[in-house]
């Protein structure tokens, strides 16, 4: 079945008998038992809820996993994941990470005894492996510098050293990138972004293809309680129905904006994996079926960056990405504000860097908006 059909009909289970085409919202915290020791399959919504199961099955089908678990946010999914590890364990992560993930690793998980090393390439990741290493955590393309890491190469290293391999697939979604087919063990999503797609709800997912991992994660999820509300699950189910056309349109517009940005004298560098000059272009061609709708770019100075942020009208100056509304972000002050300054600067996240999430407005209107914001 094509992925655009899975987006709409990914869940085969039906939990009502009315023929309702839209998925009903089962707004029930708890479920009555038919008899002592008996269950309808649903007992309490922190563990399982029919609306959530519909969403979880859809996300699992999209990623080619066996099951997915829905969370109240992407960070709730990462926090649950971290509970797989014990004090003394070591994890290697890609060095350009969403700032909130880095903050969780360094300020929460580290306090709980888990240690982290960061590296940019599969080769450097392998060099970081020590006796206590248990996992490799990857974000590709990375947030916000758009580095692309060879997923299959990292999977081979993880396999060789018997490490769990986790990929955050938020930026490209299964529409453009399938980490399981390249060797990942767990796929993570901030469903707040492209899966939900409308900037109207938070959500997160862990997707697995292995029953033992699923059992461990379901146990942690029901015990720690970061579950998604069925109302929000409904919104994400609805959002996913249009994932395919949203991803296509966002990418098409992003490519037009990239071409325009490259012609602007005030723009010093454009970071987009679809550019032939991008250092990881060949890897992208191999492992993805598209380059997505996220663009980062550096302008000539801080004043220009601030002018753009304060002058855009159609594009909103706001944190987040992947929704129908185009958003422009100042990573230094927003998504990556908690990174130590030297670390942030070394990665190129400075006062000149902006990140643009291209939504579904007309490409001409978005370019006109950026043009007036640049004062052209
Ligand atoms: C790549 C990535 N992963 C995870 C998260 C965390 O997701 P949430 O904001 O839904 O908690 C984000 C948020 O921006 C992100 O960009």
Tell me what you see in this structure:
This protein has helices at residues 3-9, 50-63, 74-82, 99-109, 122-127, 151-160, 173-176, 211-224, 230-241, 243-262, 281-287, 302-311, 341-346, 363-373, and strands spanning 67-71, 90-94, 115-119, 133-139, 164-168, 186-190, 204-208, 267-271, 294-299, 316-317, 327-329, 353-357. Helix 1 (3-9) runs antiparallel to helix 2, helix 2 packs parallel to helix 9 (230-241) and helix 3 (74-82) runs parallel beside helix 4 (99-109). The strands form two sheets. The protein has a seven-stranded mixed β-sheet with strand order 1-7-6-5-4-2-3, sandwiched between helices. Strands 8-9-12-11-10 form a five-stranded mixed β-sheet. It is built from 14 helices and twelve strands. Bound molecules: pyridoxal-5'-phosphate. Pyridoxal-5'-phosphate binds next to helix 3 and helix 4.
SSE inventory with pairings:
Elements: H1 3-9, H2 50-63, E1 67-71, H3 74-82, E2 90-94, H4 99-109, E3 115-119, H5 122-127, E4 133-139, H6 151-160, E5 164-168, H7 173-176, E6 186-190, E7 204-208, H8 211-224, H9 230-241, H10 243-262, E8 267-271, H11 281-287, E9 294-299, H12 302-311, E10 316-317, E11 327-329, H13 341-346, E12 353-357, H14 363-373
Parallel strand pairs: 2-3, 2-4, 4-5, 5-6, 10-11
Antiparallel strand pairs: 1-7, 6-7, 8-9, 9-12, 11-12
Helix pairs in contact: 1-2, 1-9, 2-9, 3-4, 12-14
Bound molecules: pyridoxal-5'-phosphate.
Pyridoxal-5'-phosphate is lined by residues 73-75, 98, 100-101, 139, 143, 168, 170, 190, 192, 202, 204.
